[in-house]
Specification:
Two copies of one chain form a homodimer. Chain A is an alpha/beta fold. Chain A contains nine helices and 14 strands.
């Protein structure tokens, strides 16, 4: 039976990416060696790292003066690397709290200085994106979370400011066009739109670094990683190669403008059903709805068993909502085909018969 | 042509491990889903993590009261996690400097307190293991590096002390029997004897944690990782699964006592040739020779081109020595068959004809 994998992350990858990753584990570049057993200093892997960095720059229109890094430790390690690298000693930073991941990010930052939460959607269980807040001009940086997987909200318009802007784009990078030059630091765990769990992409404007007066541990120091071309220590070879395969696939499709259109169509198909079908209700405020994670609940909770059986019969997995929201969550990342979204819509319609 | 991969790391893995890892990328446990796209909270992955932790405990005879963690960031991140978790505020620690990796470890520790280098082999470019040094009784911990990949030395007898003993075993864990209860914290990057680059194994005695008075960032806090059963954040799923395949292979062989004997035979074959063949000289002091990384030089450097051609013709790769030592380095980790060591010995004999 065809499986439809709506997992929030680690999540679906393109079938060609999976096939080629599997082949490389057996034999990389017809070398007779497995991708897993080659030195990260080998010509084969240096070329992989170079191409991955260059494709990130090409797909996202990264201007000169930014470094592209593939690190370890997930976005969770960036929660502490960001203040280490950007917050002045005894300094402060501004955070927008749009949900669980923002809260984790600002919790780590508090170890390094004062954190001002300049806006929060906590009052409505994070079902919307705060807007119209004032950004202080005398703080080290502004931290945003572009997409909130748990609540199904997404920032549609990024605020404009003169202070450095940092954004956790773990769950929507490469899904839509945006002006990268408006950001000073972007980080994104790979395991949604890029690759398997095990690497985190960091794109950082070099000129904002080295200004805090802190002694930064080497593994958390962006300047050290950038100076070693993201090979200060042994990089996560397999996760980076698989990410490269995804980047090649995206380029082959036609780039971000093409996948953005596909993502809009997929999300519209599902949100239209949620709005039209009286058995379901959307969780997020309409203007803030995520194109990546679609959250919804049953109007009548007693229909849960019926709907769950329909989902199972149709081969749908990973649609249970996060415990802090309840209901359902369909993660429809880049690699999700519209046919899988249609399979979900089809069973939603069955409940309406 | 058969390849003989002597890479120092990432390095050779058992062919069955590679084959099964490749298959799991296509389809894990006959689920119809790739290992790369399943949730780390899924039953499939929770079982993988459990089995991997339990096999580590079984193979190394880990006593009660220790946590087994699979983290990210390599041994390089442990260089800072160790002092964060174990060094008292304004405290100190004792380090034995046996080479480049020890030096990196103690450099990071200096950010957190006073580091006393109680013994060093720097005077002879680290070609031996210091012995007979005095271990202070009033310091937070003793830090050792059990095997030095670059120089080809290995600690044969670990010092006895009442203070906590921390050991970087990245390049020889699972290669020989040792009494784990003599250690309080062991860490090991996977990419030599365990799996692909992308995860680091940490075995820590729970009772030594939480005593420093420091505010530790969550991702560096062993207590947090242990309390979440090594799933505080998304773990590196693929690297852990492939490590599990290696652990299963080791258990199937008969455990550490069996692989230890095989490693002794492989190393003896190569060292015997180095000692018998006047064209070659061993780098490390005989009593400190590593069973994992065998370093040697040519007696007459003008034979380098000839020997390198012989190596290439025989399908040998990764035998160049580290630039700080020169000559050659044959890494003969657990997964290296004795037939590959024989292939190296065969070309060494050719130079002696």
């Amino acid at each position: 039976m065809k499986k439809h994998n709506f997992s929030a992350g680690p999540s679906i990858l393109n079938p060609e990416v999976i096939k080629k990753a599997s082949e490389a584990v057996l034999n990389i570049n017809n070398s007779g060696l497995s991708l897993l057993e080659i030195s990260h200093r080998s010509a084969d892997f240096v070329a992989i790292m170079d191409e991955a960095q260059n494709l990130v720059k090409e797909l996202l229109n990264v201007p000169e003066g930014y470094s592209v890094l593939f690190l370890q430790g997930g976005a969770s390690t960036q929660f502490l690397a960001v203040p280490q690298n950007l917050m002045k000693v005894d300094g402060e930073a501004a955070y927008v709290d749009t949900g669980a991941w923002s809260a984790k990010a600002l919790k780590e930052a508090k170890l390094f200085g004062d954190v001002e939460i300049i806006a929060s959607s906590k009052d409505k269980n994070h079902n919307y994106i705060p807007k119209g807040y004032t950004i202080p001009s005398d703080t080290s940086y502004l931290h945003l979370t572009s997409n909130n997987t748990i609540f199904g909200t997404q920032i549609k318009e990024f605020p404009s400011t003169d202070i450095p802007v940092v954004c956790d784009m773990s769950s929507d990078i490469f899904s839509r066009q945006f002006d990268l030059s408006q950001f000073d630091l972007i980080y994104a765990g790979a395991q949604k739109n890029l690759g398997p769990a095990g690497t985190v992409l960091v794109i950082v404007k070099d000129s904002i670094l080295g200004k805090t007066g802190r002694n930064i541990p080497s593994m958390l120091d962006y300047q050290i990683h950038a100076s070693k071309d993201s090979m200060f220590n042994t990089p996560p070879v397999f996760a980076i190669y698989t990410s490269l395969l995804t980047l090649r696939w995206l380029k082959g499709l036609g780039g971000i403008s093409v996948i953005e259109k596909m993502n809009e169509e997929k999300a519209a198909l599902l949100y239209n059903e949620i709005d039209a079908n009286p058995h379901f209700n959307g969780v997020a405020a309409k203007e803030d709805r995520s194109l990546m994670n679609v959250t919804f609940t049953l109007t009548d909770e007693s229909e849960k068993e019926t709907f769950d059986i329909l989902a199972k019969e149709a081969g749908l997995s990973g649609i249970n909502g996060h415990r802090s929201v309840g209901g359902y969550r369909a993660s429809i990342y880049n690699a999700m085909p519209i046919s899988s979204v249609q399979a979900l819509v089809d069973i939603m319609k069955k409940l309406n018969k």
